[in-house]
Amino acid sequence: MPVQSHAAKLLRLAAKQPAVSSRELSSAGIPARTVSRMAARGQVRRVGRGLYTGADGSPSAHQSAIEVTRLAPKTVVCLLSALEIHGIGAQAPFEVWIALPAGTHAPKGTPAALRVTRLSGAAFTEGIETVVLDCIDPAEPAQLKPLLHKPQRGSSCSAP
């Protein structure tokens, strides 16, 4: 079997997933200069710092959440974004809601606007449901945490 060129390997990875990080590309043996050359030629699109998509691929319905979890794999998609991914509610948030452990820094350079909540202990670790979005490699799936709260008296539903 012939050895694949770096460019062919990059195109194959970008076609398989809605977003691929530079960390994944370097672990696949693709040099950074190959990635930047292909982005300059328009063969792949750079959507954020260290994040690439295929040039001809159509964006996923959950593209923003996918991009954020690819750049910061330890984040947990929560609240309104998790509800939207699960198809609950009528809101389509313009920000990606993520939860981080208390004391951690929010990811920088993300292509989407973020709304960050900081949680500690069981509030962060309990109730996480692992969901595979689109063609994302199950080794690093996006994590979702709906964090629904009981409605308060006089309101139909509340989510912090």
From TrEMBL:
<dbReference type="Pfam" id="PF13338">
    <property type="entry name" value="AbiEi_4"/>
</dbReference>
<dbReference type="InterPro" id="IPR025159">
    <property type="entry name" value="AbiEi_N"/>
</dbReference>
<feature type="domain" description="AbiEi antitoxin N-terminal">
    <location>
        <begin position="9"/>
        <end position="52"/>
    </location>
</feature>
<protein>
    <submittedName>
        <fullName>Type IV toxin-antitoxin system AbiEi family antitoxin domain-containing protein</fullName>
    </submittedName>
</protein>
